[in-house]
UniProtKB/TrEMBL annotation:
InterPro entries reported for this sequence: FSCA_dom_sf, MIP18-like, Mrp-like_CS, Mrp/NBP35_ATP-bd, NUBPL-like, P-loop_NTPase, YlxH/NBP35
Single GO BP term: iron-sulfur cluster assembly
Coiled-coil stretches: none
UniProt subunit comment: Homodimer.
Role: Binds and transfers iron-sulfur (Fe-S) clusters to target apoproteins. Can hydrolyze ATP.
Assigned protein family: In the C-terminal section; belongs to the Mrp/NBP35 ATP-binding proteins family.
Annotated MIP18 family-like domain residues: 5-74
One GO molecular-function entry: ATP hydrolysis activity
Name the UniProt record assigns to this protein: Iron-sulfur cluster carrier protein
Amino acid sequence: METSKIVKALATVQDPNTGQDLITANMVLHLKVEPPNVSFTLQLPKLDADYKQQLNFACQEAILAVYPQAEVHVHMANPGATASAGQGGGPQKSNPLPHVRNIIAVASGKGGVGKSTVAVNLALALQDLGAVVGLLDADVYGPSIPTMLGLQGQKPTVEKVYGKPKIKPLFAYGMPVMSTGFVVEPEQAVVLRGPRLSGIVRQFLEECVWPPMDYLIIDLPPGTGDVQLSLVQTVSVTGAVLVTTPQEVALADAIKAMNMFFLPDVQVPVLGVVENMSWFTPAELPDHKYFLFGKDGGKTLAKKSNSMLLGQIPLVQSIREGGDAGLPAYLNKEDAITREAWMKVAKNVARQTALRNELLAATPVVEVKR
Ligand SMILES: Nc1ncnc2c1ncn2[C@@H]1O[C@H](COP(=O)(O)OP(=O)(O)OP(=O)(O)O)[C@@H](O)[C@H]1O
């Protein structure tokens, strides 16, 4: 029996959670080959009976296909039980994304304030900082992320992993992306009721093959509703980023959205506030600032949420054009001022996330009360 052949066999076994093979994912430890015995430890991010059984069976099958006489002993271990912070925390019974270190919800009080624009550009700037980032567009009523990333009209594929259908995210600019817009037509979203739509978001969290990631950025629908509730009932949300424009009216709605995260049984920490459309800068006068919508909305919201102003994004034509053209503003190398503003937001989000993970335990998943 050759150890290399056994390693090769195990490299054909796919982790149903991440889509990676067990060797690439570094899940096989202490491999011992003493013919006819083959034993090893499988390092698992979760210990659901179903998941353990699937992998055990797949490992046995792969090794027996090469050495039919082998006696295969698989020991299952769960180092995640001692991991700290992020959305990992303690042993969570059924965390569907144990391999995602931080889940960040981008929220706003009302539509049109630029929440999706912030989600997309924040994700790309975090990626530029060296993080592995994914994007989930849960804005069921106005999924704009497919257009912003040039993915409109494309559909994710479904593939069976150990007999169970799994959805494979699409990729844009190196990032895995899922959007309700890939599966629901805008006219359909309006007639489908909230619980149905939040079911789709839950499915995207539980049944997608998300790769291991540092951040999953989730673009929420505006306001408070079923999707927000379903999110905090499905995964441990590391923190929320609030988006507002400087106006009083936007601020009043943003405070309502903020309060939802602070509900006693929700308790998602607010990482900070992005103030969007802070001032207007005409393309031909890049040093000019016209405060069309007033001032200080972001600062006030940061104070009220006991967090920080993560950054201010100007209202510039290139951001809207980039969004419409599928080339997000952060990727526009000619617009240095805007790029810098997005990078500042990303650095602050990374810093606040690290600080939050240092200081607080993982956010508990909200229990579903029946
Ligand atoms: N700073 C900005 N400068 C110029 N245009 C912007 C800016 N931020 C957002 N926009 C544009 O405003 C429109 C609305 O933005 P976006 O879709 O991000 O808002 P939203 O809050 O996610 O809205 P909804 O929840 O309704 O989808 C888009 O056309 C976008 O390109």
